[in-house]
């Protein structure tokens, strides 16, 4: 006997991709996540392609994965996708030491992060206005 199926946490017009344990600090990764949040998927991909930040290539892969999930698993229109959410969480930290002079040492922490990207299919303005008129 298995567990009962859990209801889907996202809406029907959303898809998600998660990458865990990325070797970068959450603060640096958050800057790249902030840059793509709220933009269309194509614009965000273009921005990540030409970004000078080291982690931009990894974030681009996660965004491409979220787009592929939307297209293949949820049958969403790729041309109407928007980066609805892009957030960063803390993961573990490797603790190392750095030998210093006179027999002393200094601690070095190497932080890891989690990245979650959620893409959403935006509504057409005409369809939204028609739905508003029907509701009124």
Report a brief summary of the structure:
The protein is of the alpha+beta class.
Mind sketching the topology for me?
Elements (H helix, E strand, L loop, with lengths): L13 E9 L3 H11 L4 H9 L6 H17 L8 E19 L5 E17 L3 H11 L1
Antiparallel strand pairs: 1-3, 2-3
Helix pairs in contact: 2-3
Characteristics:
33% strand, elongated, 3 strands, alpha+beta, 136 residues, Ribosomal Protein L22, Chain A
Could you characterize the architecture of this molecule?
- The chain is α+β, with helices and mostly antiparallel strands and 136 residues long.
- It has one domain: Ribosomal Protein L22, Chain A, CATH 3.90.470.
- Helices cover 35% and strands 33% of the residues.
- The chain has 4 helices and 3 strands.
- Strands 1-3-2 form a 3-stranded antiparallel β-sheet.
- α2 packs antiparallel against α3.
- The longest helix is centred in the middle third of the chain and has 17 residues.
- The model has no long low-confidence stretch (mean pLDDT 93).
Q: Helix content range of the residues, please?
A: 25-40%
Please report the first level of CATH classification, the CATH class.
Alpha Beta
Oligomerization status of the protein chains: single chain
Overall tally of structural domains:
1
CATH domain topology: Ribosomal Protein L22, Chain A
End-to-end Cα distance = 48 Å
Approximately how much beta-strand content do the residues carry?
25-35%
Low-confidence parts lasting 5 or more residues at pLDDT below 50? none
| Radius of gyration computed on alpha carbons | 20 Å
């Amino acid at each position: 006997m298995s567990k009962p199926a859990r209801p889907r946490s996202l809406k029907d017009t959303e898809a998600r991709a998660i990458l865990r344990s990325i070797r970068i600090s959450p603060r640096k990764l958050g800057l790249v996540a902030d840059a793509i949040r709220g933009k269309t998927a194509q614009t965000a991909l273009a921005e990540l392609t030409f970004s000078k930040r080291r982690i931009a290539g990894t974030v681009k892969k996660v965004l491409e994965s979220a787009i592929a999930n939307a297209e293949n698993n949820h049958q969403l229109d790729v041309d109407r996708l928007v980066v609805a959410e892009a957030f960063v969480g803390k993961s573990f930290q490797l603790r190392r030491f750095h030998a210093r002079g006179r027999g002393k040492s200094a601690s070095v922490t190497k932080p890891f992060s989690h990245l979650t990207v959620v893409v959403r299919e935006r509504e057409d303005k005409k369809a939204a206005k028609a739905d508003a008129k029907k509701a009124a």
